[in-house]
Specification:
The chain is α+β, with helices and mostly antiparallel strands. The radius of gyration is 20 Å and the shape is extended.
């Protein structure tokens, strides 16, 4: 089994890296099963971590950027709670890894995080100003 990236060119899937080319060369003539997905936009993830990096130095509540990220995830409802056998409740924040969310889900998540920041973390800051600042810092365009 192999995972690799491919582009659609003239109606055909063409590998974009050496791993894909080598794997397909070994399987020439064989029938293989293919699952097609679109990888998530990496710019979205850069915007999110740029946002966390922008906010983190201006707060003292969280010891690490990852803790701030977890708090933001919880604030927007991206978490699950369950009760252990002893009655204690455990909260686990959801993953924002590429395999955990598609582009649309991540964009909704990012918009909710930005709303939390402009209403609870930095009241008075507009979402458009925050996005513009993030895009400048991260070198990205709007997703």
């Amino acid at each position: 089994m192999a995972d690799f990236l491919a582009q659609v060119q003239l109606g055909k899937l063409c590998p974009v890296d050496d791993i894909g080319r080598e794997w397909l060369a070994k399987k020439h003539g064989k029938t293989v099963k293919v699952s097609v997905t679109e990888p998530r936009n990496a710019r979205q993830l850069r915007l999110y971590w740029g946002l966390v990096g922008l906010i983190f130095p201006h707060q003292s509540r969280y010891a690490t950027a990852e803790h701030l990220s977890d708090a933001l995830k919880k604030a927007v409802g991206a978490y699950q709670e369950f009760t252990c056998l002893d009655g204690t409740t455990i909260t686990r924040v959801n993953s924002i890894a590429f395999k955990a969310m598609n582009n649309e889900e991540f964009q909704v998540f990012l918009d909710r995080v930005m709303e939390v920041i402009v209403t609870l973390v930095i009241p008075g800051l507009s979402k458009s100003d925050l996005r513009r600042e993030l895009e400048e810092i991260t070198g990205t365009q709007s997703c």
